[in-house]
Design goal:
With 513 residues, the chain is mainly beta. Strands 25, 32, 33, 34, 35, 36, 37, 38, 39 and 40 form a ten-stranded mixed beta sheet that branches. The chain starts with a strand and ends in a 7-residue tail after the last strand.
Length: 513
């Protein structure tokens, strides 16, 4: 089954009805394949009924304007006929991207995609006054598939504007997670202000890339991060079957770019490059319970510097790093409560603080998007009484500047509680209860119950639509959960031994977008 379309603009709109079987769609131009996606298409024979949602996903084909595009694959004739050009979409306003996005409820200060699935943060970089947030993205369903790099920008880390998808699956495989840096050394024939990107091409994970392996690749941008161009230099051949998630930064002391890479299991690798033409491995090491999405950064406490490796599940490992080898102290810390948060990454390009954003594994039932970015947080280091180096996470200063004290009514997005010894409280928001037991030192959030330790004297609860986050003990831990319904302030059910309760809302007069 095939359809030919002449492109007057660089966009096609792909029909999406969730919870349908996935079928392959290939896109050709100038006689060669330029895209391959798996799209939900039940056809007439396998169509699923029930709680499906529908929308049109945007397929950008900037190199195919003025050309005949051929679409073919395993999809049905009805599916092919439902694909729309820009001109056709303008005639059907009710199906347009902006119309559909405007009708849906969504969080105010947590990023969500206009439509589709998102997961891991990628390529977080601050450049030219903009925070760039790239992310694992499937524009064509609310399930994991078609891993691409979506893109959003912000001036304050709270108000986001989604931009065009910057990388899509190609002949080397789907586009998995990675990182970004500024080209400060002026390498690869590009200007210093160019942005450089490092990512995993997941070879063998699609029919188009069959027989290939997972490799690490590079891309660059000379327009401030809005258009990315893939490179053939700087590739890192496979170290293991699914090695992935390169985090790259410039190490000034040894004058080299350093890459930390997940290899397999609890094994990670350090690789180095002086020219970005090739990387050489300098170390492999193990981290107890470490897994995926590594980050390596330095924090300072009391004038003493520590290097920290952070992995996908929120484990962190303080240690030392000389540019070649990371030596952990033997202490493993925890940043998360539960498994709602995952794959956090820190920003490059910010010199005076360490900012990270995790993925929140939200479901958003009945909506045309799934997944969200967590509240951006600043990481700080402290030394415990026992001498261990600990990491604390607090909402970014942009959030703190915008918050204003209010009542517990509908406008409240945060509740802050100062706890006395053996304090108890229970509060309701968004259809669930949050309870703290000071004798057992446990926090319940809906169906989840966690032991939070004996030192907890402050809890901050953040709500945004159906997103719930909680800061424990001044950011020693952060928990997250999904509310049953959009939050409308807080209802205090009981309180014993709580010394102070404050409510806050965000003053949006400084909204950037």
């Amino acid at each position: 089954m095939a359809r030919s379309i002449f492109l007057k603009t660089p966009v096609l709109w792909i029909p999406v009805e969730t919870k349908q079987p996935h079928r392959r769609l290939d896109v050709y131009a100038d006689g060669r394949k330029i895209r391959e996606f798996m799209v939900p298409d039940g056809g007439a024979d396998q169509k699923q009924e029930g709680d499906c949602v529908g929308y049109y996903g945007k397929l950008a084909l900037p190199g195919a304007v003025g050309k005949e595009v051929i679409l073919r694959g395993e999809v049905s004739e009805d599916f092919l006929n439902a694909i729309r050009t820009d001109e056709e979409m303008k005639e059907i306003d009710s199906l347009g991207e902006q119309a559909a996005a405007g009708e849906e409820p969504r969080p105010s200060f947590h990023f969500t995609a206009v439509h589709g699935w998102i997961n891991d943060p990628n390529g977080l970089i601050y450049a030219d006054g903009l925070f760039h947030y790239y992310f694992q993205y499937n524009p064509f369903d609310t399930e994991w598939q078609n891993m691409s790099w979506g893109h959003a920008v912000s001036r304050d880390l709270l108000h986001w504007r989604q931009e065009e998808t910057v990388m899509s699956p190609d002949e080397d495989g789907p586009i998995f997670s990675g990182s970004a840096v500024e080209n400060q050394e002026g390498l690869l024939g590009q200007p210093q202000e160019a942005l450089l990107y490092f990512y995993t091409a997941a070879g063998g994970s699609s029919r188009w890339s069959a027989g290939k392996t997972y490799i690490q690749k590079m891309a660059y941008s000379v327009d401030g991060g809005f258009t990315l161009h893939s490179l053939t230099t700087g590739r890192v051949d496979s170290l293991a079957r699914e090695n992935r998630d390169p985090k790259v930064f410039w190490h000034e002391e040894t004058r080299a770019y350093v890459m930390i890479l997940w290899v397999e299991g609890d094994t990670f690798a350090i690789l180095r490059s002086g020219d970005l033409m090739s990387f050489r491995e300098s170390q492999r090491f193990h981290l107890e319970e470490g897994f995926e999405c590594p980050d390596l950064f330095r924090l300072t406490a009391n004038g003493r510097e520590k290097w920290v490796v952070m992995t996908a599940k929120g484990h962190y490992y303080p240690g030392s790093f000389d540019g070649f080898r990371f030596v952990p102290d033997g202490f493993r810390g925890e940043l998360y409560l539960g498994d709602m948060q995952y794959a956090a990454q820190t920003y490059s390009g910010i010199n005076d603080r360490c900012v990270m954003i995790p993925w929140l594994r939200m479901n958003h039932p009945g909506r045309t998007y799934r997944g969200a970015a967590g509240l951006p947080k600043e990481l700080e280091g402290i030394f415990s009484k026992e001498g261990s180096f600990l990491v604390r996470q607090k909402p970014v200063r942009e959030y703190e500047r915008l918050r204003r004290e209010c009542t517990a009514g509908e406008s409240a997005c945060e509740m802050e509680l100062l706890l006395g010894e053996e304090a108890d409280f229970s509060v309701k928001t968004g259809g669930i209860c949050i309870s703290y037991n000071g004798k057992e030192h446990t926090l319940e959030m809906g169906a989840e119950c966690w032991y939070v330790g004996k030192t907890c004297r402050k809890i901050r609860i953040f709500v945004d639509d159906t997103i719930l986050e909680a800061s424990i003990d001044d950011g020693r831990l952060f928990g997250a959960a999904e509310l049953l319904e959009p939050a409308a302030g807080f209802e205090l059910l009981e309180s014993h031994g709580v010394e102070r309760i404050c409510y806050f809302h965000l003053n949006d007069s400084c909204a950037a977008f």
